[in-house]
Amino acid sequence: MRAGWIAAAVVLLGGALAGCQVAVVGSAGVSAADQQKADRLTEQREAVDAALDALGKAPALEFDTTVKDASGKPMGLGYRITRDGDGYGALPFEGHIVQITEPAGDLYLSADADYWKAHGLEENSTQFGTGWVHTVGTELPLDPAAKLAPGQLTAGLRKSLATLNQTADPVKHKLEDGTEVYQLGGGLGALQVTTAKPYRVVAFAPALIDPLGGPKLGTGFQVKELTGDALKKFHTDFDSALGGLGQPYDGLAQASVVVTNDRLDCKDFVGSCTATVDVTNSVVGNSPGTKPTVHVTLTIDVSADSLGSKTCSTAGDAAADATITMSCTVKFTLPNRTASYQVLAKPTAVGEVHLPFDANAVKAKLAKSFGQLGG
Prior knowledge:
The protein is an alpha+beta fold and 375 residues long. It is built from eight helices and 18 strands.
């Protein structure tokens, strides 16, 4: 009897030990090192999320980057934009420095002739390179209003988080001013967010918000929020920029001109000849609802046997698809004798399409917009 009880006790004891072993294995959990890494990743995710929230609520943002000028020296470019998409400044597009003014949904560019040539506008490159050109955002590698306004930028960066490595141990980096940031890297570039509160986005690669067009703007932008006096200065600078737009070229329209009804009137014994012509223009491609004007430049070559040739020119503005009468005068030096001469005039005209721009009306719209933002 005793032997049987002993055997039973041994069996029960073995079962108890086995149960203890299973319980120990099942509750092993993560190592201290893994838990510390998980905590660091959680801190990084919280910082990124809070920084993006703050970015999206900003009344306005400033973007800064560095490029090389024609001589190879580094130069800084800056672009500022409000929550509503009103922006002003310069951006590097495909190696060209492009000045941009984008108020109230309209986009105006100022760039050199080489930029316009690179975009297939060889015929208009010279004139476009001398002033501002009205165009649309789809003509750019990246439309600032659609990608860089606070709300749109935040949405783009949130979408890009999937391309960033968020499972590796967080990488911290110190900027030149001593600010410590998380640096999240990926195939499209890096995102930098401060490690300390208040969390904010410090820099990002433009490819993160547009994988196709973004790389054409370079490798990185620094970004900061504009409030208070900085926002007011932005408003003042924007107004000044609007005053310098003049009457921009319409980059979407083309004008053809035809010279008709040419008339030549030469004054006897004076040597002056006045050529008068009608110039009719035809405009295609202008945006619906716009009322462009055509700036016509008339050049007339006037020649006379024995007297040589003279050239005169004049300019005028006409409504689209309208006719304007133009004239110009040349004066020959007549010899001291009575003679008659056959005089010929050859007129040529070119037309440039301009979009009327009311700076004061646009400034009034901006004043209302900035007023709502606190600037």
